[in-house]
Amino acid sequence: MKSLSLKSPYDMSNFAKLLTGKLLLRNEIPLGNFMIDYLLKNNLLQSIQPILNKKFHTECLRCGNQKNNLFAEIPCAICQKTHLYCRKCIEMGRVMKCEPLYEWVGKTPVWLKHENPCTWKGKLTEDQQKAAKQIVQTIHKSGEELLVWAVCGAGKTEMLFPGIIEALKLGKRICITTPRADVVRELKPRIQQAFAGISIEALYGGSTDKDGVGQIIIATTHQLLRFKEAFDMMIIDEIDAFPYHHDSSLPFATKRALKKHGSTIYLTATPREEQYSRIVSKKLPHVFVPKRYHNHPLPVPQLKLCLFLTHHLNKVIFPTTFLTWLRNRENVTRQLLIFLPTINLAEKMYQTFKQQTSEYRTTFVHAEDSKREEKVELFRRKEIDILFTTTILERGVTFPAIDVAVLHAGHDVFDEAALVQIAGRAGRSPQDPTGEVLFFHDGKTEAMVKAIESIQLMNKRGGFK
Amino acid sequence: MSYCLWCASEMITETTWSNLLSLSQPQKLCKTCKGKLQIITGNRCQKCSRESKSKICTDCKYWGKLLKNNDPLEKNYSIYSYNEFMKEVIAKWKYRGDYVLVEIFQTEFIRHFNTYIKNQMKEAIIIPIPLSKERLATRKFNQAQALTSFITQDKINILERVNSEKQAKKSRMERIQSENPFNLLEPINKPVILVDDIYTTGTTLRHVAQILKDNGCPSVYGYTLIRG
Ligand SMILES: [Zn+2]
Ligand SMILES: [Zn+2]
Ligand SMILES: [Zn+2]
Ligand SMILES: [Zn+2]
């Protein structure tokens, strides 16, 4: 065999950057068929069978699916044979025998080393510095993990900066991932501003960035299904968020997207049992940031008992306790977020509220709302006074001066983590570091009590009484 | 344990006498998902199955005028109407290529065929509407062929589709007048039932019907899953 590097008419380093660390279908490769075949023939690209038939089960190599009901057969009209395909990851394109995945097997590209990559001029608080230092240390150890347990409003994005600087100095590739596209969209401009000279891409369903060639990639965890051993540093934001711990293909994808000796940073304000027990058994190193960056305690929720609340909500009536509170708020200039357990109820209560009073500018959002981004933006710009919402706004969004009310806090969807997150929306800015948080209920639940206890505990650990 | 083909939730199959006696197909959808599919009931156009108060809908009247009452298609029978849920199911089935979703339609596709079509048309031959070679190469299956496989009546593949299926941007007049994308590989002298997944404007079925009739086929009917 002839040596390719001498003969090749093409500059292979461009292809290497484009294809390295990925697992792609043929139609996802942004190259013509001629070029793809050329790379295959020269052993720079390799096709991989995506469906593995193991002894006792079948496994999808792209998403890790092992459930039999999420595989199905297709009589392939082209091969005249029946193939097994994966249904679980089919939204990213179907994988099967004659639709394999492609992987770059040529020379691994080298990422640039940046001596002075940070353009952020702010300063970290003492607590933030402590966490940042541990993150930096983690990067230097092969295969190490670190959980950053930082209360809502601790300023966790900024805490990451020294770690990112260190990684860029060493010429490493970094991924910041979160299960939610809203958060990716919010992070991209902040990270880009802090690292103005670095190639940064944001990947989510429908994003304009698509190639995935940035040295820093900010992506929904779903997008990581297209990566394999791509990153030296993986930062997973909101590790406890619902989709992440609910859908096993997401932890599978994050793990696979990381290089063999890469390091992982988990961020959370509300660790789940799973992380908690790994902390306690000392299997997962952690750093705790109990204080907000503006050095004020977390607002502690107040419980408000409303007899017959469920009954009233069924009839779309606002409880008097709520209305009385609304008229007598400490600070009427604050905006108000009202959380409701279901889309249906949020919409109905919003409609009734709008009919009964014209004092406030109001609207409502939910997960499937096509105008969600717009409405949240209106609220951010203070063109809306009261926003009715489902748990969709429980995390990842920051508004400077709001009060928070949960109507029917006893509902199942409001678990301890959700309630802590919701309470964490209040008092976010140094200008208005407090805010009222009210849980309206018709019977205390364990989740409410635990949420309050954990907030009080964090305040205590933060040095507040 | 069985799982809903659409939402993957677990389904509890009740063992009732009627279940056992009817030897019915196992359920493919959970109750919630099944409830979102809309079978056409009530008044429909006698010609094209569109939900309609008058016997012949405005759509078909328009066709009549356009073709000077010389419509090559006798009639079309459809099972479902096209709602948001159906749109999602079809997108996942056809465009994402989740082949197995065809099983959602199996029971109704057979039942409606046996009830409304079979007896009147024992002699008829079934022809699934083909895809072009290029389209088939990317999809790896033909949705009309998949539906046809549920029916035991005689079938034959004597058509080929030559140019692209993309015609969404053209007006109906442009479409029917545009070059017929189908080729007939051999003539047929028996009545034909064309099978397709969706009847939208009826242009596709009429293109095929015209070519069949020009080559000696006595009559052409359409049997489609959805009236779009
Ligand atoms: Zn898969
Ligand atoms: Zn095949
Ligand atoms: Zn279902
Ligand atoms: Zn009609």
From TrEMBL, chain B:
InterPro entries: ComF/GntX_DNA_util-trans, PRTase-like, PRTase_dom. It comes from the Bacteria. Coiled coil: none annotated. Residues 164-226 form the Phosphoribosyltransferase domain. SUPFAM superfamilies: PRTase-like. Belongs to the ComF/GntX family. This is ComF family protein. The lineage of its organism: Bacteria, Bacillati, Bacillota, Bacilli, Bacillales.
